[in-house]
Amino acid sequence: MKLGRTYPALRASSDPLDPATERSAFTERDANSGMVTRLRGRPALLVSSTSWTEDEDFSIFLAALEKFEQLILNGESLPSLVCVITGKGPLKEHYSHLIGQKHLQHIQVCTPWLEAEDYPLLLGSADLGVCLHKSSSGLDLPMKVVDMFGCCLPVCAVNFRCLRELVKHEENGLVFEDAEELAAQLQMLFSKFPDPAGKLNQFRKNLRESKQLRWDESWKQTVLPLLVDT
Fold this sequence. Notes:
Elements: E1 22-23, E2 27-29, E3 36-38, E4 44-49, H1 58-73, E5 81-86, H2 92-100, E6 107-110, H3 118-125, E7 128-131, H4 143-150, E8 155-158, E9 173-176, H5 179-189, H6 199-210, H7 215-222, H8 224-227
Parallel strand pairs: 4-5, 4-7, 5-6, 7-8, 8-9
Antiparallel strand pairs: 1-2, 2-3
Helix pairs in contact: 1-5
């Protein structure tokens, strides 16, 4: 509701009958009970974050969205998408211009800068995270994926050398090589959206269960044996 005041993609497409009822593009809150329900036929919410540098090639994501749009135009039963790409950086204007040229009918993209307290709320509200980070050294892991996993948000991430230490393909998300593979993954994940028995919910369940092992315990299991004098 807060972001919808600034970004039309997050606003409801129609007003509720009761003026006291709050409605976004995805949910509705009953004025009397305070209960929040998901709207039927709602769009899927994708989130990505970036510093808008050459380390992240967002043309891959945009090309995948175009392929997804074409699938809908060809009659595939897929939801509309709302894509929120957060962050600041030198290439933001360049990609914002490219996004503005796409004229997509079933996909809306917005590029807000979020307050620190709003970022985890957005991640926890989303259906899927997308990561375009490629490590220049091949040795560092994307902290944005750590943030997403901390909010139990499954991720599609572009592959690089050590990514699989974090993203377990078909367990807590999916790894892709190019736009075509990402588009196929989006089609598969959203083919029966929202599906309680689908892969997205299974990935989310796996992430919740994996949180049972905390940092201290993980350090003792993984690092401590390397330091103990045997």
